[in-house]
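Q: what does this look like with manganese (II) ion bound?
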Amino acid sequence: MTFFIIGDIHACFYTFQNILKYKSTEDYLICVGDYIDRGLFPAQTIHLLEEIIDKGRCSLIMGNHDYYYFKFILGNTSSQEIYLKLDFEATRELLYQNGVSDNDMIHFINKLLFIYETNNILVSHAGVTSEVYKIIGENSVIKNSSYIDIKANINEIKGYGEYQLLYDNLILNRELPDNIDKLQIHGHTPIMCYNPIYYPKINCLNIDTGAFLGWGLSAIRIDEEGKILNTYFVNTDSRDINCS
Ligand SMILES: [Mn+2]
């Protein structure tokens, strides 16, 4: 099996479509999260992702913007999230205008995973440190589980509070990940490199190349062993560039 893994989309619908042209039908698709917010076409992006989910052979990771949007529509934002809330109002308006309700978004976000892990690869939104990786190993409920399943078993999670482990570490980590003896793939921190960046010492790939910043969207194809077969980069489509 081969994996086709895409970086932070941030509602750049046309750019997302452009990079999907490189995905082959045999590839298992993974996206590293941050589907909405910042960009102009959140509803179109969600519609397309729902279509892809319906066809199967994909896993979608939770990003911080997705998770905090979930909290925002539930009316549950703390002060640290106010900086995001400004874009959330605009995002909600764009979603409404194009037929995506709050319930549709709750339904979508509940399906997202915090990590996708095999014997050879680990995909997360922000990359994991060895400390967090140890906790993940002790909590099988987190691995390859959707948010709704994790919430149902949240009391079983040991080693950290729910908030600290799942939300601070897995979706907001800005530390360089550690080498965990398998290939890590993550997004979250945009790099202006016009290509995914591989860090050999930590065996880690950052594939967020700032689509919403007008830079571009990246993807990689890897095999089951975690060998990188190809990397892809498309410039942000001009229709996705926010000039306001
Ligand atoms: Mn992001």
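The two ends are 42 Å apart (CA to CA). The chain has a mean pLDDT of 92.
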